[in-house]
């Protein structure tokens, strides 16, 4: 039998034990987003974790919108969230679910608690409730309404539902323990009166359940076995357990917490991303500099790379930040073997091969990916006028500069050796054209071994070149300089976006479609932007450069 080499994370250990002891028959997990913004890389962790567990244990994975709070929710976000979950490849069981579809059951659950003497209607104001709650060091005080009779509570709660009381005038509270060392257990509010139109139920309800009451009920109704959430809910777990116990669910779900994913030099947190969007600092929720899932997709990240990243990060019980370079490592690894490596000149300068016949074109057969033969070859035209990168030529090169300079010979990638014989400048000293001669003996693939050159540069045949706009990205914030200024504003990197308008690409790019990605040799991986690319005008986003300082542990 093969030995298990991958150690199990702490959640898998809990599940193993539950299955072994027969506490759980079949695993069911869920992802419960609030539809109040776009999902980000942190949510991807939660999605892939929950989905991955369900898959591993042959169980079910539910997608359920936690839409019990009508103030912040917007239907526009529902579709984007579904799209993101599907794009990540997390197949959810059955239909998309909505917590708001369970409002009736939640109401009945509250009635059940009242009948058990475990909940009461309280008339204290929000401020009074706060004052009565006590502090971390002092116990709370009982509300004067705590001992209302069951009959009176049933009557008042029904009238709350029927709209007889103004917003905020009454709440339903769980009757637990005002002296509990856990403040969440000091008779928490479980229902409030609020006249708000809900995106799903409209004006049918004027009372809404609170999160800590609603969430365990949603899990229990769906038969969720392991309700996985992030660490900030650890102190709420006793209340979660109280709710499912008092409501006497036959197979109560259990809550398990793990640490949120944070990335260095990256803004996660819906609130902060929303601010960047609202202030117009970025071009919408899918601006490629963001780490929303929509932005990562637009930038050219793949579901596979995100999954690889989550596997490398693992699941932990303590908060920490993961280096953004690790995510970059994963996308490089994923694209390395899959993508053609093609020539693109981002900052072009003209090269003229003086001894190459005018009007002649020849084609080179070029391997698409040296590490993956199955991607085949393509034809690349070569002629007298080419573009090369401006930085691949220097009038007065420093030591160890092996690219083009007067008198020097370099290899044009996949083509010939050329030697620089002359160059022209404009009145500002800017190089306008470089003249070279080529040596026909050195044709690529001819087996020429006559002499060696130290530099190889890429190029594009000028008359055949495809123009494009290319966008380079850097982090929006730099943690080493502090993410926030003293006044609370974000300390933004002014160079987070560079737009190169006049790039020249080899003609094989002419059929590139939105969302396609490629390696541009020597520059990195680039993806055709899905939003700004128009018929006849290509816009590329740099996904990631080729170089990395990051190496995974093992
Ligand atoms: P944010 O704090 O970014 O606004 P949220 O927690 O309010 O996110 P929800 O829609 O409530 O967003 O979260 C849905 C699920 O995603 C929850 O189970 C939550 O714990 C999880 N989640 C949110 N952020 C992260 C993160 N950074 N890492 C892992 N899981 C996360
Ligand atoms: Mg939230």
If you had to describe this structure to a student in words, what would you say it looks like?
With 554 residues, the chain is an alpha/beta fold. The chain has twelve helices and 27 strands. It binds adenosine-5'-triphosphate (ATP) and magnesium ion. Adenosine-5'-triphosphate binds next to helix 2, strand 8 and helix 9. Adenosine-5'-triphosphate (ATP) binds next to helix 2, strand 8 and helix 9.
- Can you give the helix content as a percent range? 10-25%
What is the average of the pLDDT values? 95
Distance between the termini: 24 Å
State the helix count. Answer: 12
- Cα radius of gyration in angstroms: 31 Å
Q: Note the main sheet.
A: 7 strands, mixed
Listed once per kind, the bound small molecules are: adenosine-5'-triphosphate, magnesium ion
> Strand pairing plus helix content: what structural class?
alpha/beta
Strand content: 15-25%
Order of the strands making up the biggest sheet: 12-25-26-27-23-24-13
Q: Any idea what the shape is?
A: elongated
Number of strands: 27
Low-confidence runs of at least 5 consecutive residues:
none
């Amino acid at each position: 039998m093969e030995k298990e080499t991958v150690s199990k994370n702490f959640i898998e250990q809990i599940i193993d034990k539950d299955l072994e002891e027969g506490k759980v028959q079949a695993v069911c997990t869920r992802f419960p987003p609030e539809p109040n913004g776009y999902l980000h890389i942190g949510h991807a962790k939660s999605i892939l974790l929950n989905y991955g567990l369900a898959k591993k244990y042959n169980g079910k994975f539910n997608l359920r919108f936690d839409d019990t709070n009508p103030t912040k929710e917007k239907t526009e976000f529902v579709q984007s969230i579904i799209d993101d979950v599907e794009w990540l490849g997390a197949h959810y069981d059955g239909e998309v679910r909505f917590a708001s579809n369970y409002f009736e059951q939640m109401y009945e659950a509250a009635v059940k608690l009242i009948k058990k003497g475990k909940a009461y209607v309280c008339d204290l104001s929000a401020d009074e409730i706060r004052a009565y709650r006590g502090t971390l060091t002092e116990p709370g005080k009982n509300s004067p309404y705590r001992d209302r009779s069951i009959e009176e509570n049933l009557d008042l709660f029904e009238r709350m539902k029927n709209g007889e009381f103004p917003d905020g005038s009454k709440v339903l509270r769980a009757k637990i323990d005002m002296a509990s060392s856990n403040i969440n257990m000091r008779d928490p509010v479980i229902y409030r009166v609020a006249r708000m139109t809900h995106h799903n139920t409209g004006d049918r309800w004027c009372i809404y359940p609170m999160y800590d009451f609603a969430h365990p009920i949603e899990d229990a109704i769906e038969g969720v076995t392991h309700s996985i959430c992030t660490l900030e809910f650890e102190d709420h777990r006793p209340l979660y357990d109280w709710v499912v116990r008092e409501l006497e669910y036959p197979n109560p779900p259990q809550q398990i917490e793990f640490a949120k994913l944070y990335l260095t030099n990256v803004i996660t947190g819906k609130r902060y991303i929303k601010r960047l969007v609202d202030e117009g600092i970025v071009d919408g929720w899918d601006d490629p500099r963001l780490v929303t899932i929509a932005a990562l997709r637009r930038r050219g990240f793949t579901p596979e790379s995100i999954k690889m990243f989550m596997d490398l990060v693992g699941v932990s019980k303590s908060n920490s930040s993961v280096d953004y370079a690790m995510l970059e490592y994963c996308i490089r690894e994923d694209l390395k073997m899959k993508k053609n490596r093609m020539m693109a000149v981002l900052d072009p300068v003209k090269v003229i091969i003086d001894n190459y016949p005018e009007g002649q074109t020849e084609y080179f057969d070029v391997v698409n990916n040296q590490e993956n033969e199955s991607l085949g070859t393509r034809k690349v035209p070569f002629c007298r006028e080419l573009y090369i990168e401006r930085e691949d030529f220097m009038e007065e090169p420093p030591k160890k500069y092996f690219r083009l300079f007067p008198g020097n010979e370099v290899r044009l990638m996949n083509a010939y050796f050329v030697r620089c014989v002359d160059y022209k400048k404009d009145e500002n000293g800017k190089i306008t054209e470089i003249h070279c001669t080529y040596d026909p003996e050195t044709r690529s693939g001819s087996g020429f071994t006559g002499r060696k050159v130290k530099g190889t540069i890429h190029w594009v045949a000028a008359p055949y070149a495809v123009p494009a706009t290319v966008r380079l990205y850097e982090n929006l914030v730099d943690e080493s300089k502090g993410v926030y200024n003293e006044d609370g504003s974000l300390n933004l990197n002014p160079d987070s976006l560079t737009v190169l308008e006049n790039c020249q690409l080899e003609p094989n790019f002419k059929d590139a479609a939105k969302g396609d990605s490629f390696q541009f040799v020597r520059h990195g991986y680039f993806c055709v932007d899905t939003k700004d690319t128009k018929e006849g005008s290509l816009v590329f986003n740099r996904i990631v450069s080729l170089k990395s300082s990051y190496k995974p542990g093992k």
